[in-house]
From TrEMBL:
Residues 32-75 are annotated as: Disordered. The keyword Transcription does not apply. PANTHER family: LIPOPROTEIN YIAD-RELATED, STATOR ELEMENT OF FLAGELLAR MOTOR COMPLEX. Part of the Tol-Pal system, which plays a role in outer membrane invagination during cell division and is important for maintaining outer membrane integrity. It comes from Sediminicurvatus halobius. Residues 60-71 have a biased composition (Low complexity). GO terms for biological process: cell division. Keywords: Cell cycle, Cell division, Cell outer membrane, Lipoprotein, Membrane, Palmitate, Signal. CDD domains: OmpA_C-like. This is Peptidoglycan-associated lipoprotein. Residues 1-23 form the signal peptide. Belongs to the Pal lipoprotein family. Residues 35-55 have a biased composition (Basic and acidic residues).
Amino acid sequence: MKTVTRWLLILLVAAAVAGCATTDDEIGDEEMREMDEAAERAAAEREAERARREAEEAEAAGAAGAAGFEGDALEDPDSPLSERVIYFEFDSSNIDAEGIELLEAHADYLAENPQRRVLVEGHTDERGSREYNLALGERRAQAVARVLQLNGVDDDQVETLSYGEEQPAANGSNEEAWAQNRRAELVYER
């Protein structure tokens, strides 16, 4: 695109020089029309090039999430790193595809920032005995830690802790509250 613009400008200058070289010192109507058309084409090419560059920059900013955000990526509300809760099905410590994708983003961040450490807190809903829920919360926290470590996070960067049913995210004895309480939370050290 730049090459076309340069050639048009060269042609425009050449036409202007050729026009000046005429012996009668007057530019004919045909020459003037050609020069105007060349100038219009050059202006259109420049505008198209500018629009293309702006579109590429906007696309790059979108692909990078909030490329314009300054500060720690953990604080960027548009980053996947702002999400730090993994939810589980009833009586399960299996992580679904959405949870794996989220953990891969956190693993990338932790691998790039080896000085950062994270505590994985495992939680359960209120059903089951206290001992059972502590064990299930530990399995959930360990499952999350394992995914992080399998994606390049150093063992020393991750700790786990089970709260069982002791710190519910939602109060209530219904499926909606239980679903919010079956979780593992990533808590970054300050």
